[in-house]
Structure formats: C-alpha cells, structure tokens
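lol ok so funny story. i was supposed to be doing the assay writeup but got distracted and ended up predicting the structure for this chain instead. priorities right. anyway since i did it might as well share w the group, maybe its usefull for someone
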Amino acid sequence: MASAEYIGSHGGLGAGWIRGLYQDLLGRQPSQAEVDGWVGNLDQGMSALAAARGFAFSVEHEGQCVAADYQLALGRAADPTEIGAWLGQLAAGASREDVLAAILASAECFHNNGDAAASWLNGAYEACFNRPADAAADAAWLPAL
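and the output, tada:
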C-alpha cells in the first residue's frame, strides 16, 4: 500500500491515495474529514509507510480480520463481544496468527468438524490452505493430536 506503484496508481500521496486505502483496506468510503486528517498528516511529514501501517493495524481493520477469521474457521459471524475480546488481545501484543490459531483450536471449531482429530485437521487445512490435509499432514499431525 506504500509502494510507489500503488501510490502512483492513486495519483500520488494525497486524497486519492487515502481514499484508496480506505476502500482497499477498510472496504468503505471515507468521510471528507477523515481524508483531510490523513492528508494533513502527510503534509506535516508523515511517511507513506507510517500512514499505510496506520490503516493496516487500525482497530477497524483488525476487527475486520477477526470477523474474517470467525467466518473462515467457524463458518459464522463473530458477535461484537467476541471481536472486542480479540481486539483486546491484539492490543496486548497477540498477533493475528495467534488469534486465528486460538479460534482454530477452540472447542467450537473442533465440534464443527465432527469431534474427531482427522476431521478437525482437514477443517484447519481447508481454512488455512484451501485444501484438505494430505497423507503427509496426517502422518505429521495426527499422532500429536
């Protein structure tokens, strides 16, 4: 998002680039006040990388990532309380990978995949790799499960 190519495709560092970040990272159109605030930060010397990180690690984007993890791993929407709890964990230093791993390791995920190690492993592989576990994965992981 802070690459010269992405910035150039949005008309340079300015309002078009900021609108692109809102659309591409947050999936929505910004208000004019939001655009003006970010453009003001850039005018005052904020780097493109710092601005892009501000979007990528914003509470709004992190909440969308948690919601996507719930849909992916559990096949359902997360409720606001669940999202809030995970946002608290992220703020305390957990990584996005930690969050997804914990959701995948949940009793709900295990139950949703038939309450058996082999079916859970297939579900986890589907969620993470878009394919079922193969024989090598079974041989490596099933004894540990």
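The mean pLDDT is 94. The chain has ten helices and no strands.
back to the writeup now i swear
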